Amino acid sequence: MTIALDRAITRHHDSLEELRSCLTGEVHLPDDEQYAALSTPWLLSVPMQPAAVVAVRTAEDVVATVRFARSHGYTVGVQATGHGAHSAYAGHLLVVTKGLDEVTVHPEGWARAGAGVKWRPVIEAAAPYGLAPLNGSTSDVGVVGYTTGGGVGPMARTYGLAADKVRAFEVVTGDGEFRRVTPTEHPDLFFALRGGKGATAIVTAVEFDLVHLPTFYGGAVYFDGADAERVVDRWRAWSASLPEQATTSFVLFQLPDMPGVPPALAGRMTLGVRFLWTGAADEGRELLDQLRAVAEVILDDADLKPYTAVDSVHADPVDPMPVVDPAMLLTEFTDVTAKRLLDVAGYGSGSPQLMVEIRQLGGAYARDAEHPDAFSHRAAGFSVLAVGIAEDPRVLPHWDRLYAALSEWDTGGVWPNFGPPHDAQTARRAYDEETLQRIAEVVRKYDPDGVLQIGEYARS
Ligand SMILES: Cc1cc2nc3c(=O)[nH]c(=O)nc-3n(C[C@H](O)[C@H](O)[C@H](O)COP(=O)(O)OP(=O)(O)OC[C@H]3O[C@@H](n4cnc5c(N)ncnc54)[C@H](O)[C@@H]3O)c2cc1C
């Protein structure tokens, strides 16, 4: 190692000592064992080599970190769980929010969660009051990362997006100021934080409305992959006729034979129809019976359940995964769309994906929020998501083929949660032009020195 490099590393360590002395949380450098434990994301395929991990415990710690970064020439990123990890390299401080773990549920129907909180503790704390949050397909995802990307969950057609329910954020902006953000306090930030992810601020806590839903009728009904054509054909017509109390999707699974995977689903292609019904259980059961009658059901998990069982609808994996998960949005899902999908990703197609899912949108999802937001995809009719092992060389070329096969119905957009904006190109898919310009204005105003890493896309 050269003397110059040695000196640079010593200076870097000295300056991080200065940060350490201002925090109640901790600073971890690459040679410290907590560094990997805290920075390794759920998405194991995303490389994370930040200059340091800042494990914050308070909002003041976030203020100190952003001010320190601003004056010492670092950029700052933020991670709660790493489900939507964004690579972090040298010269970068990664704020890990796990220590911001407060959860308060108010029985009159709203909750407050710190930025390190996942959906599961909110669901558990709300359940005794018969209340439920608008979490996503798995309660293992972080409340803030999910909500700032819009947040389209298994009740989206009944109640809309998680972002639609936000009352307030508490944030630290790139200029190092702590701010409370509501429809009337910093409304430009209130706009940008509901869809714009962490481009404009690091959220320290969020307050949001809950819905009254002690129980739901739903879960997933699984068929053999060989029956996919019949079931998908019926699902198309059936889903189109459903009222807004129903949110549904279907998934082509190719799950390995491993612990946690039900034997009926392991080692072959299966098709799961997911269904969450917020109305009377008997009506929901009757509606789902129409699908059950189409082909032999190999596993039936749908029933009347407490809301705490909501993860059973999508049955997402919980353990960290080395996967890639490309996505797109469709205007509609016709008989031709279904045929093209199944030709490339259905039974006998040789698809290498672990799963390919189609979610039906519409209903409350399609209606504008009470206050304008930075979510640009209300008009999309369906979402497509594929998940495959990152190291499998067949996975991305196969996605390219699937994307090409469905391109006739491509809206040109992707949810910020399913295609996080990293640069000008990905940002153009995540946002329409007007929204992108508004986010860029907010970024310039609150982060004039470009301290927040994810704001990069709005500056390019
Ligand atoms: C298995 C799985 C299931 C999913 N299901 C759904 C779903 O049903 N619906 C849906 O909409 N999305 C879904 N997602 C996508 C998920 O919502 C995004 O990946 C989201 O960003 C995850 O947030 P996180 O905090 O858990 O992840 P992290 O990787 O910790 O954060 C991801 C990003 O969120 C932002 N962020 C996180 N914390 C903060 C903060 N404190 N302040 C500002 N910005 C912050 C940052 O941009 C950060 O880079 C799913 C993802 C996975 C892996």
Automatic annotation (TrEMBL):
Coiled coil region boundaries: none
Gene3D superfamilies (UniProt xref): 3.30.465.10, 3.40.462.20, Uridine Diphospho-n-acetylenolpyruvylglucosamine Reductase, domain 2
One Gene Ontology molecular-function label: oxidoreductase activity
Superkingdom of the source species: Bacteria
Keyword Protein biosynthesis: no
Keywords: FAD, Flavoprotein, Oxidoreductase
Domain FAD-binding PCMH-type, first and last residues per copy: 46-213
Matching PROSITE patterns: FAD_PCMH, OX2_COVAL_FAD
Cofactor(s) the protein requires to work: FAD
InterPro entries: FAD-bd_PCMH, FAD-bd_PCMH-like_sf, FAD-bd_PCMH_sub1, FAD-bd_PCMH_sub2, FAD-linked_Oxidoreductase, Oxid_FAD_bind_N, Oxy_OxRdtase_FAD_BS
Family: Belongs to the oxygen-dependent FAD-linked oxidoreductase family.
Name of protein: FAD-binding oxidoreductase
Organism for this UniProt entry: Kribbella pittospori
Lineage: Bacteria, Bacillati, Actinomycetota, Actinomycetes, Propionibacteriales
